[in-house]
Design brief:
It is a single chain. It contains 3 helices and 6 strands. The radius of gyration is 15 Å and the shape is globular. With 152 residues, it is α+β, with helices and mostly antiparallel strands. A 5-stranded mixed beta barrel has the order 1-3-2-4-5. A hairpin with a 2-residue loop joins β4 and β5.
């Protein structure tokens, strides 16, 4: 059986249409809570759309979504989308609460390149339909082309 993993998401990846555009499939999501972390906005963003970061913050409970049973191919695409190689984000093992159960998962926390710019709050309402379309029609197809080219 193929290896799958759960991924806690708290920003752009909480939008099913963005996850589907990246992975090429619909991935089941459930509301989840991550204890000891907090979502922030960025004072400077690497894209034109508002993106958040996650930092460890004892005592805080961050609401988000849990992507369930993500297969290895989809994980590679999500890792690439999160720009792990650049230090923008760091993949972190966490435990999240979903429907009263605790599950092991990964999440993408702020890496050394973005952590200094964490500033203020971020909410999904800040992402406009235009922002989503920019990701789905422009940024994600460019990213997937770069990933395909890099794995040849």
């Amino acid at each position: 059986m193929a290896q799958t993993t759960h991924i806690f998401v708290y920003g752009l990846l909480t939008f099913p249409e963005i996850v589907t555009a990246i992975t090429g499939r619909q991935i089941q999501m459930k509301p989840a809570v991550l204890t000891g972390f907090r979502r922030y906005g960025l004072s400077q963003s690497p894209t034109q759309a508002p993106v958040p970061v996650l930092l460890a913050e004892p005592g805080h409970r961050q609401l988000g979504q849990l992507l369930l049973n993500v297969d290895e191919q989809a994980v590679k695409k999500l890792d690439f989308f999160e720009d792990l190689d650049s230090g923008h984000y760091v993949k972190t093992a966490v435990r999240v609460e979903v429907e009263g159960q605790w599950l092991d998962a990964f999440c993408y926390c702020a890496g050394p390149a973005l952590a200094p710019y964490a500033s203020g709050d971020w909410s999904p309402e800040r992402v406009t339909e235009q922002d989503k379309q920019y990701f789905i029609q422009t940024l994600i197809p460019e990213m997937l082309a770069a990933l395909a080219k890099g794995s040849q």
